[in-house]
Known about the structure:
Two copies of one chain form a homodimer. The first copy, chain A, is mainly alpha-helical. The first copy, chain A, has a domain at 50-131: Orthogonal Bundle (Arc Repressor Mutant, subunit A), CATH 1.10.10. Chain A is built from six helices and two strands. The first copy, chain A, has helices spanning 26-44, 52-63, 69-76, 80-92, 114-134, 140-159, and strands at 96-100, 108-112. Chain A has a two-stranded antiparallel ribbon with strand order 1-2. In chain A, a hairpin with a 7-residue loop joins β1 and β2. In chain A, α1 crosses α5 (114-134). The longest helix of chain A is centred in the last third of the chain and has 21 residues, at 114-134. The radius of gyration of chain A is 20 Å and the shape is globular. Chain A starts with 25 loop residues before the first helix and ends in an 18-residue tail after the last helix. Chains A and B meet through α1, α2, α5 and α6 of A and α1, α2, α5 and α6 of B. Chain A binds a DNA duplex through α4. Chains A, B: Residues 157-177 are annotated as: Disordered.
Amino acid sequence: MKLNSGEMAGETAEDTRAPAGFDQNLGWALGTLLRAYLKGIENVVAELPGGPRSYQVLSLADSGKCHNQAQMAEHLGIDRTAMTYLLDDLEALRLVSRQPDPVDRRSRRVTLTPKGRKLLNQLSEGVRQVEHHVLGALNAEQSEQVLRGLCQAANGLSHSKSPENPCQVVESLDLKD
Amino acid sequence: MKLNSGEMAGETAEDTRAPAGFDQNLGWALGTLLRAYLKGIENVVAELPGGPRSYQVLSLADSGKCHNQAQMAEHLGIDRTAMTYLLDDLEALRLVSRQPDPVDRRSRRVTLTPKGRKLLNQLSEGVRQVEHHVLGALNAEQSEQVLRGLCQAANGLSHSKSPENPCQVVESLDLKD
DNA sequence: ATGAGATGTTCTGAAAATCAGACCATCTAG
DNA sequence: CTAGATGGTCTGATTTTCAGAACATCTCAT
């Protein structure tokens, strides 16, 4: 168990008011890390049409979390029309297969073909390296904590349908000079 | 009726999976969180042209970290041509001012006007709420740790010019069936 | 059953973001 | 002074994104 070594302030308590001067905001950190991640994945899946998204789709199909294209699209945050094209390409490469859901024939079940699974295995090592690179400034324990925290936060968001009310809009911005 | 067991229960049944090989994607978590963040900021800065990027630009200008547009663009991961348009808009609103750098007149120093600083202060509360919402599934201590970890990792990446060698490319992908 | 409305998927076309490259002004090095 | 590099801007083309229509299928009330 690692104690919080005093970084720059003694107050690591639950006070939400941060000094907030030095560290750039959460959005910048997320954006920077995601860009690095996507760039890395882009290399790993360079031969795949659709780039990093294809990897995400394959990975998601493998996980069996989603039962149709719409759910997959929502889960990955991409448009359903884009999902159609993406799956067209992946299916043309025999990496996934679309089968009408016997229970609801409007839906298409997306499953990984053996070839797709094999490819995913081939990619996994590269992906691991990318993740390691992205979090390279952190030690193993920190990486583990951060990764777990991120996944927990992300799962929390995706489970609770954000009711369009994350926070109030600042409406009086004095932009009219 | 879905067979899916309800995930909306108050206590998230954390299926503490085997940590080994756990590749519930870093990329997916980053993407999901960033999307939620951007959506929230979009609301907060709805009246600002350029959306969340404008906020990032204002925030960066305020921090005084970058001395010209190119550095700002690189830091924020946006194209320098886009930066031009963005600053055009912000300058038209008198939120920032561009002044030729006396030391190198090719460069433009981007500084926050008093009006810009006032606006930034108005926005800060909303931004804080968004950040809190994005990490809402985490308790205060976890949020603190994750935020610190993210910033540390992001700073590590942005400081070390990634020398185009994040990891080797997987070149034999057997896509030719 | 039957009809009305909702949902999953695909397609179309328009709006918007992205990106490469030309261009000018300015700096630095020789 | 010239040559090459760099910061900023503009232009034009490619790509992505997005809204909406179309079609098939499901659900539900009647």
